[in-house]
Amino acid sequence: MSRLLRVLRTVAYAVLPAEVLLAVCLVAGAAVPLPVLAAAEAAVALLLGAEVFTYVTLRRRGLTGRQAVAELVPVPVLRLVGHELRLMRSLFLWAGRRRDGVGPGDRAFGHARDQAALMYGFTFVCVVETAAVSYLLMDRPTVHAAVLVLDVYTVLFMLGLQAASVTRPHVLSADTLRLRRAGHVDLRIPLDRIAGVRYEPRFTHEPRDGVLDLKVAAQTSVTLELSEPVPHAGLLGRERPVRTVRVHADDAKAFATALREAVNTERPAQAPVTPA
Length: 276
Fold this sequence. Notes:
Layout: H1 2-27, H2 34-60, H3 65-72, H4 75-95, E1 107-109, H5 116-136, H6 141-167, E2 170-172, E3 176-181, E4 185-190, E5 194-202, E6 211-213, E7 220-233, E8 239-247, H7 252-266
Parallel strand pairs: 6-8
Antiparallel strand pairs: 1-2, 2-3, 3-4, 5-7, 7-8
């Protein structure tokens, strides 16, 4: 089965980019020979059929649906698709004034305020660019339609980044701190691993091993020192251990104070966590 999975992934890496290139040629009005078009569509159909057959086989072997998909699709692709879906979902949560992952009894700390002006500025530039390009391409309807779809999605993407930051705050629960940034960072830290909390505004961050900087508008305001490393997965799924985490919150002092109190409550028998 593992050999079949490797073959399917190799074929997918070859067929799917070729299909995208073919679609671009068709949208641009290029003449594509019928045999080439038929062969490409047949290859995609065969690939999908093989993927479905393998998925069903994996499910029969006891894997869950999520596990079967993870076996078929490379981790970077899954994470990129998941990121885009979280951004689009955040738009609906934002419109409904709802938040993600905040349960009863949890304390939420927002972190989107200081980047709002920048994000809205970028979004406005994207809207102006969409209107300008639409005017310039109005005499080329096929190209205009393709570019318009890309431009509209870019606007939604920018709004989705801000919506994800608003609807996915940092969450402090009874035994876990959940740190988030937009739709691609979701780090859970057990409170008993937090050895130090300090209010520390920083505007420069040099990359260092074991240090994670969750910057918002190029700044962090609270630094956490951990007694044991926790794994952090990047956008494409690459994991690395971190022992120092720098984050930002709209009310950083209140966030640091609440976190110290929660940590001291979690481990009353140990030395209390105090500001550095």
